[in-house]
Fold:
Amino acid sequence: MPAKVNLQLSVGPLRDDGYHDLVNVFHAVSLFDEVTAAESDRLSIRVVGDPAGQVPLDESNLAIRAARALAARAGRSYGAELVIRKSIPVAGGMAGGSADAAAALVACDRLWGLGLSREDLSDIAADLGSDVPFALLGGTAVGTGRGEMLTPLPVSGTFHWVFALADAGLSTPAVYRECDRLREAAGERAGWPALSEPLAHALRDGDPKSLGRALVNDLQPASIMLRRSLARTLDEGREQGALGALVSGSGPTCAFLAESAEHALDLSVSLRRVCHQVVSAYGPVPGAVVV
Ligand code: C5P
Structure:
């Protein structure tokens, strides 16, 4: 199941339910977590490839919650032994938890022989988290509402990315709160967000230079306030010729758009000077699939 980077994250006003209305352009990239579901009497979870033990193994784990929600929809108490092989950074702003939840939905649906439609799975996904429906869908799509109402966007070709990963994650609610605080302090009122026309054109034309110029993330100033070192990382990528540089989602992963696969390789070598964990990936890629 793929990770995502947000190409446009425009944050509107705070709603009564504690969420913000967004225009959120998701782009699935070729960093994958793998989830397997095996028969079992009860529901259990194990994580491989998370040496720091950052993924929770209790009921707060999004994949466990996904399996429970699916069983509840089917009106039965099913069991499964879930194993997650992590490659997506944890709490990195790349929707790794959402990818695992989407994978658990698809895997358990198959294991239990439920045969739910993509629409039904997407409804369950939206209750689990704002980014989970996109992890099912993949590709490139604009999310409105709190990000869960999706419309696929036309894209030509492939874009090449480099991601600089941080040692520790950032809390998504804390970043949204900081965004509200910064706006209030500046006397700014959040406008109603709209899909960026230059961004949509750049995607449709497969034009990385225009896409680099159109990338935007309203959460970025808040993420930088909470993790000052991100400003330096972004500058380094720009100095090394990245076509665009931005914090991915609520961070702290920084995303850099390269001109080509070769340029991505050069960029990752340069970025390793300021960040010890750097990975390359391309997008768009499909969403959750059974392999
Ligand atoms: O939906 P999800 O559980 O991923 O959201 C995590 C947190 O991020 C929410 O509790 C909220 O604080 C913030 N959020 C938001 N507006 C959104 C999506 C998330 O304020 N559209």
In short: Residues 76 and 156 are 43 Å apart (CA to CA). The pocket of cytidine-5'-monophosphate is lined by residues 18-20, 22, 129-131, 146-147, 172-173, 176 (CB under 6 Å). The first helix runs from residue 62 to 74.
